[in-house]
Amino acid sequence: MRLTFIPALTVLALGVASTFTTAYAYASHDNFDARSIIDPGSNTLDARYGSGIEVPFQPVLRDFLEEAVDAYRRHLSESESLEARADTWYTFKYGERQQRMECTGTEPVKDIKKRLWGLSDGKPETLSLGSLFIYLPSGIMFYLDENKSLNSQKEKVNAGNPIWFKKFGEKVLH
To answer: Superkingdom of this entry's organism (predicted)?
Structure first.
């Protein structure tokens, strides 16, 4: 009689153990995004959809919706101003070499020159021996002031046109 209860107790114990194991496994997988395992401190919803727009509570639905529309319009105007400050891609050329690089409108030209490793074959001293210039629509060369940013130059620097590099004393064939 004792032997008939041992298999039943074993099955019951295994059933209880598997239930606890399964419940524990589901409790540890409450994060729906796999990236949260890699970086648990990040909120992936904020990264994916933005932090949202906060609208203060209004007891009347109409007032709440009007406030929500105003908040949404403010959010759009803020995001448009951020897009205006976004980086722009420029093409830099030196002889047959060319390099595309992302630059902010506020970065000084001398700092941009330090990042132009593709034009100098990895020799930064080459870029210190010359200056950057653009061709104006009239065909005249306009040298960029190294202490000013691309947006604050005397002539407009168009991202669609290349910015050229020239060593001092070197002739340029365009």
So the answer is: Eukaryota
Q: What is the pLDDT of residues 74-107, one digit of tens each?
A: 877 776 555 545 578 888 888 888 888 888 778 8
User: In Å, how far from its chain's centre is CA 124?
Assistant: 27
User: CA-CA distance, 58 to 131, in Å (whole number)?
Assistant: 60
CA–CA distance, 1 with 6 (Å, rounded to integer): 9
Fold of 88-167: Ubiquitin-like (UB roll) (3.10.20)
Q: Which spans in the chain are helix H?
A: 2-28, 35-38, 44-49, 61-84, 109-114, 124-128
For residue 1 the two structure tokens come to: 């009689």
